[in-house]
Amino acid sequence: MAGVISDHRTEHGIPHTVSCRAPGVILHSGRGSEYASRKSARVCRRLGVTRPMSRVGSCFDNSVSEAFNSVLKVEYVHRYTFRARTEARIGIATWITDFCKTRRPHSICGFKSPIDYENEYGAGLTGGLAAQEGLHRKDSTVRGD
């Protein structure tokens, strides 16, 4: 299913991803032209997205992406025959959003789905901030501020 890579991923994919995520998004990608371009850098900078990229030939900046692509191929792509590129795109997007992110347990997330992990992490941050706010109010009441 090789095809021409366009700026579509940069113009639409990155903003869409950011709109669905919590602040502090990290874009794990290869060094492909669409992600290493000036346009991509501007979009990421404008949206506050971190782009970890090391020098050419280093495998460490891309390991998360490579691991995900491997799982995608083993657990989904190689199990189906797609009649058209559009069918493959829709199927893969659906697998990612409806299964991989919401129900598939990930070892790095303590065997929780990424969405459950993010929700628990966010709740912990919010709870911690609320507790600090409560302590601050209690301290100011005691002092008579």
UniProtKB/TrEMBL annotation:
Which InterPro entries does this UniProt record tie to the protein? Integrase_cat-core, RNaseH-like_sf, RNaseH_sf, Transposase_IS3/IS150/IS904
Q: Give the matching Pfam families.
A: rve_3
Give the signal peptide range. none
Query: Domain Integrase catalytic: where?
Result: 48-114
Q: Which domain of life is it from?
A: Bacteria
PANTHER family, alphabetized: TRANSPOSASE INSF FOR INSERTION SEQUENCE IS3B-RELATED, TRANSPOSASE INSO FOR INSERTION SEQUENCE ELEMENT IS911B-RELATED
Stated name of the protein: Integrase core domain-containing protein
Q: From which source organism is this entry?
A: Streptomyces incanus
